[in-house]
């Protein structure tokens, strides 16, 4: 369990603390330190996305902000607006999965899902922490999109009210709002060839990851350990998720550079043969450590196994139709990277995250309601302690007040952090 840190809550001190986290997180891949700073410098919301550990350290220093109404179970931990996405739960490509089951066009359409999609920081804890962090991100995101303070607070009310109806009454989400419909159609239309062309190139007649902003060479000790680790993962898959002999033959492996909060952890992209000449598949093997909220909540039990298994357990508990082919593994004989828990999932062309930069202010009311309902359903599905009564108006007002204060704290940290970043970032 992480040890609580006694923090002075002045913005300058918190900005310094954030840099301590970022340097530690990227210490094994120092080149990623600047990249993480660049991503967080984009806006207060971008900063919040990369600052889950500090978010919970602030709650340790201000336990009154973490107090609130009852209800407990698996929570996402790093909950924010862009932690939702559209994906196809089938293990194969769209046409492969549909044809293997003889599905019609309408059936294929129903197989695309929009839901929570990142459980790296999942932990057993109070529901209110997820709702608090999501509300904080909504206040910051609404302001980023030009909403007035009054409108942003109304969005927060819509989100909390939808969460309550979903968590306590089982009310299903309303019709998907325009951004969700657009994202779903976008990922449905994207082909496997487009995914491969965007991430790979042909070298001597074989596909390889394109080294650059997305991919880099792995340390030698990691590269040599990847085949055995990947085969160990494959051995745990059910038979129906292993379509043919030779499909999982590794063609290339690279260091994957993605995310904001997770940037600096070991992340391995594995390109395998797949089915057919253009049938290659990409897998993501991602290092997992202690969840950020453990500094506030303690051990993330109960679950059996390591942190990669914690992520898989939470994913399956919270999401009605999680992606198939999820699994776990670790590296052997890889030096300092040995035995790190790795969560493995297949990347699909039919997969994309909600992106705030593509939203319009007018979309936010329906989106806030929809996301609140999805989170409420996930919490109810994975509950361990369900309250006997609904949250009251006073509970809602308290939660909103805490989110307002946390949004203000993160706004106050943002510019002092940017000031400290300036000497570290390339000149523009």
Descriptive notes:
The protein has helices spanning 11-25, 31-40, 44-49, 52-61, 94-101, 105-110, 127-144, 149-169, 178-189, 192-199, 220-235, 294-297, 307-318, 364-381, 393-421; strands spanning 72-75, 84-87, 113-116, 123-126, 200-203, 206-209, 215-216, 250-256, 267-272, 281-287, 327-329, 342-347, 351-353, 383-385. The protein is globular. Strands 7-8-9-10-12-11 form a six-stranded antiparallel beta sheet, with helices on both faces. It contains 15 helices and 14 strands. The protein has one domain (11-421). The relative contact order is 0.21. Residues 92-110 have low confidence and may be disordered. Helix 7 packs antiparallel against helix 8. With 428 residues, the chain is α+β, with helices and mostly antiparallel strands.
Key words describing this protein structure:
alpha+beta, single chain, 428 residues, 15 helices, 14 strands, three-stranded antiparallel beta sheet, globular
């Amino acid at each position: 369990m992480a040890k609580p840190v006694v923090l002075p809550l002045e913005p300058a001190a918190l900005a310094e603390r954030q840099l301590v986290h970022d340097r530690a997180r990227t210490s094994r891949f120092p080149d990623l330190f600047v990249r993480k700073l660049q991503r967080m410098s984009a806006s207060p919301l971008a900063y919040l996305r990369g600052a889950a550990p500090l978010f919970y350290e602030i709650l340790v220093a201000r336990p009154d902000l973490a107090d609130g109404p009852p209800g407990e179970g698996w929570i996402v931990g790093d909950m924010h607006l862009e932690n939702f996405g559209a994906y196809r739960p089938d293990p194969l490509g769209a046409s492969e999965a549909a044809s293997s089951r003889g599905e019609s066009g309408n059936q294929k359409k129903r197989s695309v899902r929009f839901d929570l999609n990142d459980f790296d920081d999942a932990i057993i804890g109070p529901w209110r922490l997820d709702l608090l962090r999501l509300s904080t991100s909504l206040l910051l995101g609404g302001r980023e999109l030009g909403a007035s303070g009054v409108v942003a607070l109304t969005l927060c009310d819509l989100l909390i009210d939808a969460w309550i109806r979903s968590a306590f009454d089982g009310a299903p989400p309303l019709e998907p709002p325009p951004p969700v419909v657009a994202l779903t159609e976008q990922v449905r239309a994207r082909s496997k060839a487009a995914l491969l062309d965007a991430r790979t190139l042909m070298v001597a007649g074989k596909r390889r990851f394109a080294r650059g902003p997305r991919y880099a060479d792995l340390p030698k000790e990691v590269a040599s350990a990847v085949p055995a680790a990947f085969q160990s993962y494959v051995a745990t898959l059910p038979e129906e998720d292993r379509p043919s002999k030779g499909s999982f033959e590794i063609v290339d492996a690279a260091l994957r550079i993605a995310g904001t909060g997770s940037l600096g952890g070991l992340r391995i992209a594995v390109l395998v043969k797949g089915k057919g000449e253009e049938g290659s598949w990409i897998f993501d093997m991602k290092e997992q450590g202690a969840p950020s909220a453990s500094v506030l909540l303690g051990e993330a039990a109960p679950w059996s196994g390591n942190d990669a298994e914690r992520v898989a357990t939470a994913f399956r508990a919270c999401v009605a139709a999680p992606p198939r082919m999820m699994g776990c593994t670790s590296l052997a004989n890889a030096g300092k990277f040995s035995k790190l828990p790795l969560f493995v999932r297949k990347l699909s062309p039919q997969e994309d995250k909600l992106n705030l930069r593509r939203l319009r202010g007018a979309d936010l009311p329906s989106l806030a309601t929809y996301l609140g309902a999805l989170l409420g359903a996930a919490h109810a599905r994975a509950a361990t302690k369900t309250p006997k009564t609904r949250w009251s108006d006073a509970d809602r007002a308290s939660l909103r007040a805490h989110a307002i204060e946390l949004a203000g704290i993160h706004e106050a940290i943002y510019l002092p952090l940017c000031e400290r970043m300036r000497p570290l970032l390339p000149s523009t």
